[in-house]
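Weekly structure sync, notes
Attendees: PL, DS, HV (note-taker this week)

Item 1: CRISPR-associated endonuclease Cas1
DS walked through the input record. Source organism listed as Brockia lithotrophica. Sequence as pasted into the shared doc:
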Amino acid sequence: MSQGSFLSGRLGLAGARIPHADRHGLLWLSRGQLYVQDGTLIFSTAGSEEFDPGVYQIPYQMVSIILLGPGTSITHDVLRILARHGTLLAAVGEGGVKFYTAPPMGQGRSDVARAHARLWADEKERNRIARKMYSIRFQEDFPERDISTLRGMEGGRLRESYRIVAQKYGIEWKGRRYDRENPETNDIPNQSINHASTFVEAAADVAVAAVGALPPLGFIHEDSSNAFTLDIADLWRVEVTLPLAFSVAARALKDPGVILEKEIRYEAAKIFKKKNLIPKMIDQIKGLLHVDDNSGDS
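Item 1 (cont.): predicted structure, written out as tokens:
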């Protein structure tokens, strides 16, 4: 990319051809160095699948969250300048299959968190949003059903979904089993679902953090510290998690040399990019919480 003018190297502006800078303010950087020079945030890379080799000026004031992929290093000054401007920073796996942050820096805004807390604290609203989530998952409206009834329906519908997707990929499905103490003793299809679920939950972690919602305040899940993240991940269980899991499981059953976790991680990264998964999750979160399109963006 030409460096002839100030804007020519600013990711997300003249660099609109770069696929991982989108309207939600998500900026994906990998295989390079992020540092500060003369008060400007700079990303230098020798080149990758997403970027041509070069030095890019980062418009961090216009970014909600910078996601650092594999092979990326940062300087202390980067943390200082992002914290000052309320820009989030997290390390992620390729394509968003892992989410590492300790902890995320604040955005300087609380409107999404306050909206989330208000809806969660109102039992009528909390149940309405839970029903909406079930409606998204099962493509059917449930205006009058109570949540306990819907939870009962959920189990039966998910069992049928497992059967249908397994059949599509030629998997002999014996039911969902998970030994938490010895996860490697599960059969290959169940191991695959465990790995795929972890990666989709990581994508949901990114989306929840980018918007500034509250992970512990779930509308369907209740006890987990990331209950809302699990709510969002479950919206994609049938469309993404199960096809990802069973497609790789089918390959692993035919080829014992397939390293299951690694293969699913690589496949997940490709699917997340192809489906634009994290931006779609962000749109879902904003729709569920009734926040406008600028609430989570810087």
